[in-house]
Amino acid sequence: MELEGGQAAGGGDIRKKETSDLTGHVLVAWPRMPALLRTRLIGYVWDATAPAGTMERSRKTSLVTFFILHSGPAELGRWMVERRNVRDDYASAFGEEPSSPGVVAISIDTNDTHSTAEAVIGRIAFTRDSAK
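Structure (tokenized):
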């Protein structure tokens, strides 16, 4: 996944329900029926304040777990390439082996802080890890 930092969601902090806005993020979903109650999601995110390298459960729903890849304004305006083991991240987040993901979504979220944000996200590809 390639992403370029843009403008951060001012005042956003994924660790607080009332400010859980994120700049650019990629969501990987495993739909399960009934979808609104059981679909599991992992969000790979750039947060304004939460430390990079941390995993945070959504304060709004237990179905979403965020992996904070970048934090704050230091890397804004630069392209970065991220490589994640989605299988391992899912197992870490939900304590079980995943099936194949069914949906990938790209989002920017500023509804809680009423701020603005922008991000540019490039190629997203799933590859098989030959080491496993």
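Residues 1-8 have pLDDT under 50 and may be disordered. The radius of gyration is 14 Å.
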